[in-house]
């Protein structure tokens, strides 16, 4: 993302997506407490997909603005892949 989004906008989007994540987490706890194990297992599986999708949206924002990431989550810039010498060469 390389700070393409204004920090104020990124902050607002991060807050909204984290609220969505917490809603999914709370819903999962309700299902766990009030439904059968099979219902919970099915719900948890789908909730995990949603949580993963939310992370995919949040991660670039947090990399661009690490101070927006939740406390304790350290966001570093990804390492550039080193290109091996001769990797493109065909013998």
TrEMBL record:
It comes from the Bacteria. This is Uncharacterized protein.
């Amino acid at each position: 993302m390389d700070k393409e989004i204004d920090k104020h906008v990124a902050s607002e989007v991060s807050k909204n997506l984290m609220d969505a994540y917490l809603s999914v987490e709370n819903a999962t706890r309700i299902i766990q407490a009030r439904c059968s194990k099979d219902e919970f297992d099915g719900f948890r599986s789908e909730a995990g997909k949603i949580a993963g999708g939310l992370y995919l949206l949040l991660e670039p924002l947090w990399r661009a603005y690490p101070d927006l990431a939740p406390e304790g989550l350290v966001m570093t810039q990804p390492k550039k892949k080193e290109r091996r010498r001769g990797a493109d060469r065909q013998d």
